């Protein structure tokens, strides 16, 4: 039982840490601080630029934090 609880806690921390990293990356790419990542800003990461159109689910030419959360780095 103790091992199971330890494993569950470790998994929870891993999920939280992954979310924090992704959130930090959003701020890194949103260089103008407007709360969105433009195609121009995405050019800092070729993988992000390559996924940009697929991630931009509403087609507005910008990635919101929720759209960016689907980025597979």
UniProtKB/TrEMBL annotation:
<keyword id="KW-0732">Signal</keyword>
<dbReference type="InterPro" id="IPR002048">
    <property type="entry name" value="EF_hand_dom"/>
</dbReference>
<protein>
    <submittedName>
        <fullName>Calmodulin</fullName>
    </submittedName>
</protein>
<dbReference type="GO" id="GO:0005509">
    <property type="term" value="F:calcium ion binding"/>
</dbReference>
<feature type="signal peptide">
    <location>
        <begin position="1"/>
        <end position="22"/>
    </location>
</feature>
<dbReference type="Pfam" id="PF13202">
    <property type="entry name" value="EF-hand_5"/>
</dbReference>
<feature type="domain" description="EF-hand">
    <location>
        <begin position="43"/>
        <end position="73"/>
    </location>
</feature>
<dbReference type="InterPro" id="IPR018247">
    <property type="entry name" value="EF_Hand_1_Ca_BS"/>
</dbReference>
<dbReference type="InterPro" id="IPR011992">
    <property type="entry name" value="EF-hand-dom_pair"/>
</dbReference>
């Amino acid at each position: 039982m103790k091992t199971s609880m330890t494993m569950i806690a470790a998994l929870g921390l891993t999920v939280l840490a992954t979310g924090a990293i992704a959130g930090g990356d959003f701020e890194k790419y949103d260089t103008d601080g407007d709360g969105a990542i433009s195609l121009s800003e995405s050019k800092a990461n070729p993988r992000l630029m390559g996924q940009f159109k697929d991630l931009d689910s509403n087609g507005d030419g910008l990635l919101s934090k929720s759209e960016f959360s689907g980025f597979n780095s």
